[in-house]
Amino acid sequence: MQYFKPDGDFFIGDCMPFFHSDTFRLFYLLDENHHGALGGLGGHQWAQASSKDLIHWKHHPLAIPITEDREGSICTGSVIFHQVKYYGFYATRLRDWRQQLSLATSLDGVHFEKTTPNPLAIPPDGYDIFHYRDPFVYRDHTEGPRGGERLGHREL
Predict the structure, then answer these.
(1) Residue 61 sits in a domain of what CATH number?
(2) Buried b / exposed e across 107-146, counting CB within 10 Å, b at 16+?
(3) Residues 105/86, Cβ–Cβ less than 8 Å
């Protein structure tokens, strides 16, 4: 992985490492033509490689791809595992450059499905609508899962 580069005009950016159940997962943004895709929006999508020993790596299909016309980029985020499910929190850069936070879930850590409704959160008053991205989500073991309360959305 140290010298890995995807084939073609693709590059890796914003690595998001995650470890669970004896598997190290490296989620990363697959960047097309150095932000040149989709009119400068980047066209980023979440890709993934996994390893059990950090020597042998398996490359998976896109974890969170662009699937809707409104999406210009699937931006950086974070992954948590809670009970039997992986939660991928990410930002979506829309075609008009606005940004919002979104959520996808997976039972196997490889195949994610975007939740409905998405977005999970939009910028509240006082936040820049063009710089509302890269959520870092964690579980507070002393207080329990409270992110949904803070976001005004559902609990995990």
Answers:
(1) 2.115.10.20
(2) eebeebebbeebbbbebeeeeeeeebbbbebeeeeeeebe
(3) yes
Is the predicted pLDDT of residue 10 greater than 90, yes or no?
A: no
Distance between CA atoms of residues 47 and 80, nearest Å: 16
Count of structural domains within the chain: 1
71-82 vs 58-59, strand pairing mode: unpaired
Amino acid at 91: A
Q: Number of C-alpha atoms within 13 angstroms, CB side, residue 144? A: 4
Tell me the pLDDT tens digit for each residue of 70-92.
Answer: 999 999 999 999 999 999 999 99
DSSP state of 22: T
> What DSSP string describes 56-112?
S-EE-S-SB---STTEEEEEEEEEEEETTEEEEEEEEEETTS-EEEEEEEESSSSS-
With respect to residue 54, please indicate whether it lies within any of the assigned structural domains: yes
pTM of the model: 0.85
